[in-house]
């Protein structure tokens, strides 16, 4: 009797494990990354600025990367996300629209498209949507620490996804000056495996950019006067912009 019970329990456990493995194959999570000091890390939020694109562009699509947990299959699978309303300031249908994503057959990586709209109110304030992966018949939510992702946007300058450590602390005035001098709006940092393609920057290049910006600011200041990190603080507390890892 005891032996029969043992084999029954073992078979039940095996079936439960098979069901868990099956479910595990159909899960996804957000997998956006950036690189700081040659260390890649997963990020859970990003900013987008309509101020950096043509003034006639009234909408743009952000594609948030997702990753599959488990095994690939030989057919396409659909996945979705919803907005958590009480954690968002943007209004669905007015400020954004969430589209369905597709995990292609045999692939581990895909993207969730989110359409952002350029609206009059975003000229004066930023709005955000807090996304959460939702269940579909094909794919469910995977790593529960990474099933949420926040997108914030406005029709004014916002901190870019890749603000170099070597530029020091971020401020809108520092960002605007960097755009004017370098003609760049984002600075993705290369990791140690970088092969030279894809528009990333190695540490030495980022440090050279910082030096270039400081030299340009010194020349600018002689003619036009100082630029402050924050114009909104009292005059006696204002600090001039400077590009350095220590600033």
Give the structure's gist in a few sentences.
The protein is 23% helix and 28% strand. The protein has 247 residues and is α+β, with helices and mostly antiparallel strands.
Characterize the overall form.
globular
Average pLDDT works out at: 89
User: What is the percentage of strand-forming residues?
Assistant: 25-35%
Structural class designation: alpha+beta
The number of helical runs is 3
CATH topology of the largest domain: Immunoglobulin-like
State the distance separating the first and last CA atoms. 74 Å
Q: Major beta sheet, specifics?
A: 5 strands, mixed
Number of domains: 2
Within CATH, the superfamily of the largest domain carries the name: CalX-beta domain
The helix content is 10-25%
Order of helices and strands: HEEEEEEEEEEEEHH
β-strand number? 12
Weakly predicted, low-confidence segments: 3-23
Strand order of the largest sheet: 7-9-5-1-11
CATH class of the largest domain: Mainly Beta
Rg, rounded, reads: 24 Å
CATH architecture annotation name of the largest domain? Sandwich
Fold blueprint:
Layout: H1 2-24, E1 27-30, E2 32-36, E3 39-43, E4 45-49, E5 59-69, E6 77-83, E7 96-98, E8 101-103, E9 109-117, E10 127-134, E11 140-141, E12 148-154, H2 172-182, H3 203-224
Helix pairs in contact: 2-3
């Amino acid at each position: 009797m005891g032996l029969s019970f043992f084999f029954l329990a073992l078979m039940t456990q095996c079936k439960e494990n098979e069901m868990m493995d099956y479910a595990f194959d159909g899960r996804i999570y957000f997998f956006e990354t950036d690189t700081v000091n040659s260390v890649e890390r997963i990020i859970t939020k990003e900013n987008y600025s309509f101020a950096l694109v043509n003034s006639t562009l009234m909408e743009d699509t952000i594609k948030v990367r997702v990753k599959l947990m488990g095994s690939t299959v030989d057919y396409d699978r659909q996945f979705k996300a919803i907005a958590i309303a009480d954690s968002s300031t943007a209004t669905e249908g007015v400020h954004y629209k969430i589209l369905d994503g597709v995990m292609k057959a045999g692939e581990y990586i895909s993207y969730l498209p989110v359409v952002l709209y350029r609206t009059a109110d975003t000229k004066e304030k930023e709005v955000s949507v807090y996304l959460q992966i939702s269940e579909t018949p094909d794919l469910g939510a995977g790593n529960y620490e990474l099933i949420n992702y926040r997108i914030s946007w406005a029709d004014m300058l916002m901190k870019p996804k890749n603000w170099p450590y070597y530029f020091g602390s971020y401020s809108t005035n520092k960002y605007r000056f960097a755009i004017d001098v370098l003609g760049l709006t984002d600075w993705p940092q290369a990791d140690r495996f970088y092969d030279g393609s894809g528009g990333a920057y190695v540490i030495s290049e980022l440090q050279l950019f910082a030096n270039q910006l400081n030299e340009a600011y010194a020349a600018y200041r002689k003619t036009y006067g100082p630029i402050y990190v924050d114009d909104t603080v009292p005059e006696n507390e204002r600090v001039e912009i400077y590009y350095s890892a220590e600033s």
